[in-house]
Amino acid sequence: RYGHHGRVRSQHRRVGAAATGTSNFVRYASNPILSNSDCLTYWTPIYLGAENICMSGAGGRSPCFGDSGGPLTVSIDAGRSLLVGITSFGAAIGCAAGYPSVFVRVSYYRDWIQQNSDYCNIPNKM
């Protein structure tokens, strides 16, 4: 579960640094997924529960202002990614601060998604 690297998408000119304006190109950042207990060392006293997942802000790489709602994915095999989170929040002092970013954990809401959407379980054999 942990040990995966998460990948986030950004439309800013730079991911994680003084990102000003938007880019014509989609940018990506990849950092390790953290346990919530490791993440809390940065975010205490903010509540982080089972519905959250965190990605390290190492190297000043993280989603930036305006990236909320964007995907956090992990590679599951050659050419395929799995959506594991939706960008929720990061450090108010800026995306290059090195703080972990917090995401909504998609798997926590899987039952609700299946019950309230046109979800179709596609077999792994594609």
TrEMBL record:
Gene3D superfamilies: Trypsin-like serine proteases. Residues 1-118 form the Peptidase S1 domain. One of its GO terms (biological process) is proteolysis. Belongs to the peptidase S1 family. CLIP subfamily. InterPro entries: CLIP_Serine_Protease, Peptidase_S1_PA, Peptidase_S1_PA_chymotrypsin, Trypsin_dom, TRYPSIN_SER. PANTHER family: GH08193P-RELATED, PTHR24260. The lineage of its organism: Eukaryota, Metazoa, Ecdysozoa, Arthropoda, Hexapoda. It comes from Anopheles atroparvus. This is Peptidase S1 domain-containing protein. Pfam families: Trypsin (PF00089). One of its GO terms (molecular function) is serine-type endopeptidase activity.
